[in-house]
Amino acid sequence: MDFPPNQGLDQDEVDEQVAETIADNEVVLFMKGTQLMPQCGYSRRALGLIDQYRDEYETVDVLDSLDEFRAALEDRSGWETIPQTYVDGEFVGGSDILAELEERGELEETLAAE
């Protein structure tokens, strides 16, 4: 059985999608998998933390073009790991940063987009 190479998007398409998604949404989570089926524990953790305070936010499944999303997001944030959360166009962090904000009682305010 042959498996075709990555059929995802090219780097320019991903760069454009990342820029547009961040610009067009108050809160964005770039994650592995979907809201209904997260594909890693860190993405699941980030979803749970955001869900406590936001009913509406955008998620982007990066798995079809993982390398391209990783490069595009690292260019924006300097952070190479996924998931990544953006609020009002600004990089907030991954699931560990969201958890730290929650522990300090700052996550709700951070996610309260303006």
TrEMBL record:
UniProtKB keywords: 2Fe-2S, Iron, Iron-sulfur, Metal-binding, Redox-active center
Gene Ontology molecular function: 2 iron, 2 sulfur cluster binding; disulfide oxidoreductase activity
Keyword Metal-binding: yes
Pfam short name (any one): Glutaredoxin
Domain Glutaredoxin: 27-92
Keyword match Signal: no
InterPro entries membership: Glutaredoxin (IPR002109), Monothiol_GRX (IPR014434), Monothiol_GRX-rel (IPR004480), Thioredoxin-like_sf (IPR036249)
Sequence similarity: Belongs to the glutaredoxin family. Monothiol subfamily.
Protein name per Swiss-Prot or TrEMBL: Glutaredoxin
